[in-house]
C-alpha cells in the first residue's frame, strides 16, 4: 500500500481521537459516544440504508470536486451546481409529468447534467477567457444559483398543496425506486447509489486510460508543458468545469428524485461543500472517494443518534469529527514527516 | 505496518476500556416522550420555545421522560421521528408544518406509536393534529393596535410568506380596521424561504423602515426574526406586539402585548392524555374560547394596556360568541 494511505488512516484516527477527547471533556464517556455513532450508522438494515442514503449525493459531489482537482481547478461551486441540477430535475418532472420511466429518467438526468455543467462551465469560461480565479467565481455563482433556485421553486413550480418552500411533486416515471429491503431496510436509500458507483468506475477509467483524462491531468499538473505540446488549456479548463458541474448536478438526483420527489429549498444540506472534504480525503482516487463518502454518510447518520443517546454532546460532534479529519489530512505533509521519523 | 496496527489496537483498547467502565443505563418505567422541534430551535423565544416549555412542564409535573431534538434541515425530520419510534417512545411530537411530509411517511410505519403534529394536518389513526385559530388572536391584537396608534398607521412584519402567516396578517388587518377604519396597515415579509424565520437583522431593518414611514406599532409573526423588531421598537421608542410566546419582557414597556399561541398548552394536553391512556387521534383546533389563543398581560404591559382592556375583553367575547366573524385566510383562499 502506498504511504499516503497510512497517512490518511492515521489522520482518521487522530480526528476521531481528538473529537472523542472533546466529548470526554464535555462529560461524555468516549467509548459510549463511539458506540452510539457506530450503532447509529450500522445498527440495522435501515440504519445502513440511511448511511448509504447520506453517502449517495456525497459520492457525486466528491466526484465533481475531484474531477476539477484533476484539471488543477478548485470547484467550490458544487453546491450551487447541484441546486440548479435539482431544480432542473423537478422542473422536467413536473412539465413532462406523464413520461414513462425509460424515457423520463435518462432525459431528466441528462438535463440535470447539462444545467449543472453549464453553470460550472460559466466559471470555467470566465477563467479561460477572462482570467477570473475559479475559487472566487464559483463561490459567487453559488449565491446566484440559490437565488435562481428560489425563484423557480417558489414562483414557477411552487407546490400549491403545501406551505413549505418546495415544488410540486414530479411524475411517477421520474421517481427513482428505493433499494431492496435487505440492503436499505425502510430507509430512503435509492438506486442513485448504483448510478454514482458506475460513474466513479467510469471516472477511474477516463482518468487512467483515456486521452481525455490524460489531457485534463496534464492541463492540471503541468499547464506549461501542456501548452507547449499544443494543448488548448482554456478549452480543457472549460471542459473540466463543465463535467465537474454536471456531476454536481447529478448529485441532486438522490435527494430530489429518490427521496422527496420534489425540489425543496436548501435540499442540498451543504452536500456540495462536504464534497470538497470527500475529494480531499479520498485524494481524488475512485476508491478513496467511495471510502470517504461512505465514512461521511455513516457519520451523518450516526450523529443523528447522538441527540437521542447522549446527554452533553449533540449531532454537531459529527461536524467536529469531519473538520478534524480534514484538518489532519490537510496537514498531511507534517504527518508524513512524522511518520518517517517514527518508522525509521 | 507494525506501528499502524499498534495505533489501531491501542485506540480500540482505549475505547473498549472506556466502554466497560460506563455506568449501565438505567431502565426507567416513566412515559417517554420524544419532541422534534422545527428549525428555529428551542430558543427562538416564540413558537418552538412554546412547545419546549409545554413539554418541560409536563416532564416536571407528570414525571415523564422528555427527549428533545432540534432539526437543522428538512431532511433530518424523518430520521429523527423514526429514531424515536424505533426506540419505543409511545408518543412523538412534531412541531411545525415543515414536518407534515415526514409524519405522513413515518406514522403509518409505526402504527403502535402515537404522533402529534402542530400546525399541519396529517390524517392517520395514530396521529393527533393540533391547529390554532391564529386569525382570532391576530384580530384581537390588531384591534388593540388600531386603538393605540396615534398616527393611524400600524405595521405587520411576517416571517416567511406563506398561508399560515397570511392568516395572521389578514386577521390583524381586520382588527385594525374595526378599531379605526381610517388606519393603514403597512405589511412586509422577511423572506420567502425558511431562513426568513431566523434573520433578526432583516427583521430590524424592516421595522426601522416602517417606523420611519410613520408607523408607531408593529405586530410581528416572524419567529426568531421578530427579535429584531423589538430592538427597532426600543431604538425608536415605538411599540411592538409579540407573537406565539409571551414576549412582553423582551423590551419591557415597548411591547404592547403578545398574541399567545399556546403551543405549550396543546403540547402539555397531548402528553397528559397520553399519560392517562386517552390519546385521541384527529384534528383539534385551539382558539380564544379555550385560551389556546390569548393575549399576554403581565407586569411589563399592565399599565400600558389598562385603558383598552375592557374593550378588548368585549371584542374577545364577541368573537367567541360568533358575533364578530374574523376573516380566515385558510377558508378564503382554500389553502392547506
Give a concise summary.
The complex is a heterodimer of chains A (344) and B (336). Chain A contains 16 helices and no strands. Chain A has 344 residues and is mostly helical.
What's the overall geometry of chain A? globular
Helix/strand/pairing class of chain B, anyone? alpha/beta
**CATH architecture identity of the largest domain in chain B:** 3-Layer(aba) Sandwich
Strand fraction of chain A: under 5%
The H/E string of chain A reads HHHHHHHHHHHHHHHH
- Mass-distribution shape of chain B: globular
Find the CATH topology of the largest domain in chain B. Rossmann fold
Kindly state the percentage of residues in helix of chain A.
Answer: over 70%
What is the rounded distance between the termini of chain A? 17 Å
**What is the mean pLDDT of chain A?**
92
User: If strands are numbered along the chain, what order do they take across the biggest sheet of chain B?
Assistant: 2-1-3-4-5-11
Compressed to H and E, one letter per element, the order of chain B equals: HEHEHEHEEHEHEHEHEEHEEHH
Q: Any idea of the CATH class of the largest domain in chain B?
A: Alpha Beta
Number of helices of chain A: 16
Low-confidence stretches of chain A: none
What's the main sheet of chain B like? 6 strands, parallel
Regions of chain B with pLDDT < 50 over 5+ consecutive residues? Answer: 16-27
Largest sheet of chain A: none
Cα-to-Cα separation, first versus last residue of chain B: 62 Å
Amino acid at each position: 500500500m502506498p504511504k499516503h494511505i497510512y497517512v490518511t488512516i492515521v489522520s482518521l484516527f487522530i480526528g476521531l481521537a481528538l473529537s472523542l477527547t472533546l466529548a470526554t471533556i464535555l462529560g461524555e464517556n468516549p467509548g459510549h459516544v463511539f458506540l452510539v455513532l457506530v450503532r447509529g450508522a450500522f445498527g440495522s438494515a435501515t440504519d445502513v440504508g440511511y448511511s448509504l442514503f447520506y453517502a449517495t449525493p456525497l459520492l457525486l459531489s466528491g466526484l465533481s470536486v475531484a474531477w476539477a482537482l484533476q484539471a488543477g481547478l478548485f470547484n467550490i461551486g458544487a453546491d450551487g451546481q447541484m441546486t440548479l441540477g435539482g431544480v432542473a430535475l423537478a422542473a422536467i418532472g413536473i412539465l413532462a409529468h406523464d413520461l414513462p420511466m425509460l424515457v423520463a429518467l435518462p432525459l431528466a438526468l441528462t438535463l440535470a447534467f447539462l444545467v449543472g455543467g453549464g453553470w460550472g462551465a460559466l466559471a470555467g469560461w470566465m477563467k479561460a477567457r477572462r482570467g477570473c480565479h475559479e475559487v472566487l467565481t464559483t463561490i459567487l455563482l453559488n449565491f446566484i444559483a440559490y437565488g435562481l433556485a428560489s425563484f423557480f421553486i417558489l414562483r414557477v413550480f411552487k407546490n400549491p398543496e403545501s406551505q413549505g418552500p418546495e415544488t410540486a411533486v414530479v411524475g411517477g416515471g421520474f421517481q427513482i425506486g428505493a433499494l431492496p429491503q435487505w440492503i436499505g431496510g425502510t430507509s430512503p436509500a435509492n438506486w442513485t447509489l448504483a448510478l454514482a458507483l458506475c460513474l466513479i468506475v467510469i471516472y477511474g477509467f477516463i482518468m487512467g486510460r483515456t486521452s481525455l483524462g490524460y489531457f485534463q491531468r496534464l492541463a492540471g499538473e503541468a499547464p506549461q508543458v501542456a501548452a507547449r505540446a499544443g494543448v488548448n488549456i482554456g478549452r480543457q479548463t472549460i471542459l473540466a468545469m463543465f463535467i465537474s458541474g454536471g456531476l454536481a448536478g447529478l448529485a441532486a438526483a438522490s435527494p430530489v428524485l429518490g427521496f422527496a420527489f420534489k425540489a425543496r429549498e436548501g435540499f442540498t444540506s451543504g452536500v456540495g461543500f462536504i464534497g470538497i472534504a470527500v475529494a480531499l480525503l479520498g485524494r481524488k482516487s475512485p476508491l478513496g472517494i467511495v471510502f470517504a463518502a461512505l465514512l461521511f454518510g455513516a457519520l451523518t447518520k450516526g450523529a443523528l443518534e447522538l441527540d437521542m443517546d447522549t446527554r452533553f454532546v449533540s449531532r454537531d460532534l459529527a461536524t467536529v469529527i469531519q473538520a478534524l479529519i480534514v484538518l489532519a489530512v490537510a496537514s498531511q505533509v507534517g504527518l508524513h514527516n512524522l511518520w518517517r521519523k517514527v518508522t525509521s | 505496518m507494525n506501528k499502524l496496527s499498534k495505533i489501531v489496537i491501542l485506540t480500540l483498547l482505549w475505547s473498549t476500556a472506556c466502554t466497560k467502565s460506563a455506568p449501565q443505563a438505567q431502565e426507567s418505567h416513566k412515559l417517554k416522550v420524544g419532541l422534534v422541534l422545527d428549525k428555529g430551535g428551542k430558543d427562538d423565544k416564540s413558537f418552538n420555545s412554546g412547545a419546549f416549555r409545554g413539554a418541560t412542564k409536563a416532564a416536571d409535573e407528570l414525571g415523564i421522560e422528555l427527549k428533545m431534538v432540534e432539526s437543522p434541515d428538512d431532511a433530518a425530520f424523518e430520521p429523527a421521528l423514526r429514531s424515536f419510534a424505533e426506540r419505543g417512545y409511545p408518543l412523538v411530537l412534531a412541531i411545525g408544518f415543515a414536518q407534515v411530509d415526514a409524519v405522513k411517511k413515518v406514522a403509518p410505519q409505526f402504527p403502535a406509536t402515537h404522533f402529534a403534529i402542530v400546525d399541519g394536518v396529517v390524517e392517520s389513526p395514530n396521529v393527533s393534529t393540533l391547529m390554532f385559530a391564529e386569525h382570532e388572536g391576530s384580530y384581537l391584537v390588531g384591534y388593540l393596535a388600531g386603538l393605540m396608534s396615534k398616527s393611524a398607521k400600524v405595521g405587520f412584519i411576517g416571517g416567511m410568506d406563506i398561508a399560515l402567516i397570511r392568516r395572521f396578517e389578514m386577521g390583524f388587518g381586520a382588527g385594525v380596521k374595526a378599531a379605526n377604519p381610517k388606519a393603514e396597515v403597512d405589511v412586509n415579509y422577511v423572506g420567502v424561504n425558511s431562513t426568513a424565520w431566523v434573520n433578526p437583522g432583516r427583521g430590524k431593518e424592516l421595522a426601522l423602515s416602517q417606523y420611519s414611514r410613520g408607523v408607531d406599532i408593529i405586530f410581528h409573526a416572524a419567529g426568531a426574526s421578530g427579535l429584531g423588531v423589538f430592538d427597532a421598537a426600543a431604538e425608536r421608542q415605538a411599540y411592538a406586539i409579540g407573537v406565539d410566546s409571551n414576549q412582553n419582557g423582551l423590551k419591557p414597556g415597548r411591547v404592547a402585548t403578545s398574541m399567545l399561541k399556546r403551543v405549550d398548552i396543546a403540547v402539555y394536553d397531548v402528553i397528559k392524555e397520553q399519560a392517562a391512556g386517552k390519546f385521541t387521534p384527529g384534528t383539534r383546533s385551539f382558539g380564544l374560547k379555550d385560551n389556546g389563543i390569548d393575549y399576554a398581560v403581565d407586569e411589563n404591559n399592565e399599565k400600558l394596556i389598562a385603558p383598552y382592556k375592557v374593550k378588548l375583553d368585549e371584542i374577545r367575547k364577541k368573537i367567541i360568541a360568533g358575533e364578530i366573524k374574523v376573516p380566515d385566510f385558510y377558508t378564503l383562499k382554500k389553502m392547506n
